[in-house]
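Backbone description:
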Amino acid sequence: GTRIKDRATMHGIALNVTNDLGIFGLIVPCGIAGRSVISLAQVLGTTPDIDRVKQEFINTFATLFECQVSSASVDEF
């Protein structure tokens, strides 16, 4: 999602790991008709360790955006 407040934009991201996706059948993800929401567990065929998913996401984000992620922001995950 995207939010604009006080002339600043804020962006969000959701990573479906093992959650029930039934309710997502009611939405068109990212406005792309004919596509559905999927979880990481469905892609892998197994339930991933949530702590490992968090750490891999943080590491990849930091690498891609050439930044450091503070421990305060990590705790929000």
